[in-house]
Amino acid sequence: MKLPAASCWVSQNQNRVRCRRSRGAPHPQRARGRKRWIQRSVLCGLLLGGLVGFAPTASAADSMPAITDHAGMTAWYENEVSTNRQKAKDMEAMKAAYASNPGFVQGMAGVGGKTDIPRHCELLISSYTKAADEADKFAKMHRVMMK
Q1: What percent helix, strand, coil does the chain show, rounded to 5?
Q2: Does the pTM exceed 0.85?
Q3: Are the CB atoms for 53 and 47 separated by under 8 Å?
Q4: I need a surface site. Which of 59, 70, 79, 142 has the fewest CB within 10 A?
């Protein structure tokens, strides 16, 4: 099988022979440009991944007092109780807002597919309440250890 010959012609203003490559053969400048683009994309990805990977993260354990500081632990757990109870109260308000406007929940079905948002709020209320109860137990335990 013979490949078709490239068509060539003489350029009028530059007095040199020019040839058209066969279809599918990439232009050398484009190939270099694509290679640079891929290299730069990979470099940017690695840099962003490194930034995210080594970014300092805050955790609850950073703000906790020493385990032997029972007064500090009691105060910390009481703070957790109040925070979780407030979050549960906020979720109650959100659930009531969704219940009062069911058309909004049905309208969101096309966006994210969640039609059971009030049930989601109930699960979060249950979770926050359970976390507050457990933190309250730990606060009582550390209060007893303080004496």
Answers
A1: 65, 5, 30
A2: no
A3: no
A4: 59
